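Page 42, continued from yesterday. The earlier attempt failed because a stray header line got pasted into the input along with the sequence. Redoing it now with the clean sequence only.
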Amino acid sequence: MSLGGHDMRLLSAACVAWAALATLLSARPDPAIVVVVLALVTIVAGALAFGTRLPGLRADQSARARHEGEDDENPASSHGSGWALWALLVIALTTIVLAAAQVTLAHEEAGPVTTLARDRAVATLEARVTGQPHRVVGAGGDERFVVPAQIDRITARGRTQEVATPVILVGDRRWTNLTWQSHLRARGRLAPSQRLGAARAVVQVNGAPDVVGAPPWVVTTLEPVRAGLVGASSQLPDDPAGLLPALVVGDTAHLPDDLTDAMNATGMSHLNAVSGSNVTVVLVATMWLLGWSRTSRRVRVALALVALAAYVVLCRPEPSVVRAAAMGAVGVLGTSWGRERAACPALAAAIVGLLVWDPWLAVSVGFALSALATLGLVLFARRWSQALLTKLGSRRGRFVDGMVEITCVPLAAQALCLPVLVALNSSVSWVSIPANVAAEPFVAPATLGGMIVSTVAVIAPTLAGWLVWLPGLPTWVICAVARLADAVPGGSVPWLPGLAGVVLAIVVVAVLLCAWRAIVFTGRFGLVALGVAGALLAAVLAPLPGESAAPPAWVYAQCAVGQGDAALVRTGATRAVMIDVGPADGHPAQCLERHGITTLDAVILTHFHADHVGGLAEVLRASDAPVAVLGTWVMEGAKESEGLKGRGTAASSRSRGEQGALGSVQAALEQPRASLGALAPGQRLVIGEVTIEVLWPRRVMTEGSVQNNASLVLDVSAPAYHALMLGDCEREAQAAVIEQVRQSARRRAFDLVKVAHHGSSNQNERLYEAAAARQAVIGVGAGNDYGHPTKKTLELLARHDARVWRTDTQGDVDALATGGSISLQAQR
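This time it went through. Structure tokens are written below.
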């Protein structure tokens, strides 16, 4: 069983063991069931093994065959022996990882923590920090810090017990700077952990941590090195100041949130923290330095492994760092040390070893992506680059050689990761590979420079503050690449969701992996043929932009309905509240269909202008149940004849969307499935976990447009986000609602603001300052003759650090639940 000269038997057996362990952890069956399953697997595989000619028996069988005059070189015999050996490998590795997992699970579950968490009891605990604290925003908008830890001793209900149970501690900002492996005492309320992982409970701790024990001496010794890099990096601008410590030593505490979003969206998230790329750089640099010592290869390898261990401790050996170290070492073995044939067995050993060390890696997406990326490097990166360079022949130079190798590395890694990424996002980022290719040359100088600065900072902090610009500049370039790639319109291409999308991704990857030979050996004709084949495949199978389903985790959507507004606030699996419905030709039902909405709990019309209410009849027909239609209580300027009063013919030709449209609303409501009601300030709609509060209008304003200033201003609160919906209100109404917005923001920070009036220039900057939302969405039509959104408004939002999302260039804008907050994703 081989592929391109690589022996795949051990690796494929390790993958079977991995799949078995993932199934075990996901289902969490009774241990007795696991024993039965193992017995059945052993019986079946043993029957297969002993029913064929095992390698160990081959000598005796060969002698008997020669004695009996049979042909010793029987292909069927050799084939059977290979499958028998593979079956034994599967049995052995599966037994090892499942047995280790059972021991780990039994050890973790021993003691009263699970029971106390189920009863939500209060306990005093002594714990050891096992991971880096990181910030999250809770459902109430408050900032919290979560700390992975292991409880060593717990006191509850008058009883103290020794345990070894992993938990998650949740505290305030005072829990930020805890050192890995430090011992602490705390008191808090336990609750069951809802996430699939090692933690058996979540502990809401009270007060500051009481540190009662220092970490081991090796951690204490290396901690100033880590802190020195963070201190020196503070001299840099925000982006590189946050990314450099994350890239070099895994300290993500200072990463700007929007930079993290940009790197996640462009497939560069492996650079947000220590990854296999950093480990590879450290190992290669160490081997290169040791090469000058003229020591034997075994000594150099041993010293390199010592350096790798020190680097892991410096970065704090959390599961992600240990995983990166193991996969980085395998990558070096497969691509840099000239031991390609050993790479796949080494990868198998790394997978099994890591699963034995931490069984929960089996259900970690990061582990899957890391293993697949490493496999891509081992199998394809070097072969592709060599084949391309051979094809180029004498026409190449050093620069071309370097560019080919740099291009093949992320291409090979991303190729095998595609099915997993599609399963997660239902989209494919076509800018990911170019972005990674552009950033790859800067990873090594940033990593090595950062290591030098961290060492110098211990001795001479001032000098380190100057030297930090050496790794800071390439880090800054990586940040710029991420932001530039994230700003590319349509950088993420929609893909079929669910199992069908995963199968399609696997087919595409398989076709491309089989077609690489044709590319490099048939020249331009091969490139053209592959391009045509790819275009035909995309045309037949891949979804067209704008037609794919929304991501499953969406919680809010700004619909692309042309020059108008329509938004969905999700209230259930197939239910939502729709706020405005767009113009009559905006096809709002398509937005409902794309987001899987079949039932509308309510339709809220912020005001009665045609670009906000024209699609009402279409929306009511799309709902499978009667709908409550709610609107502003202000009727002045709501009728067609009043909407254009005093504006003249020119205005009427340019302002069809600004017409009062109460008549069309009343016509749409002539069916028995809907009713009309008015919303007044102070009213609250509570639907499931969503609360919608009306902040405005409190009075009729005659300044400006009466209907625009009568727009409902809505405060939308859901577990994952807090949004401010401004309708079309102009600066006069915005000024009147500033204090209410400020008070609401004090209670819970706004995550998102729906910008008023399609981004017109008629805005009150103090309102956006009071809201301080990090995300701003604008419902606007492409090529509109109003000039929306205006440059003035875009600059206003930029001054307040709000990232702008527009339906004219990006299609539907979906807010996805990510823990206790949201991230936004464009349809195109």
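Notes: The mean pLDDT is 77.
Reminder to self: strip header lines before submitting.
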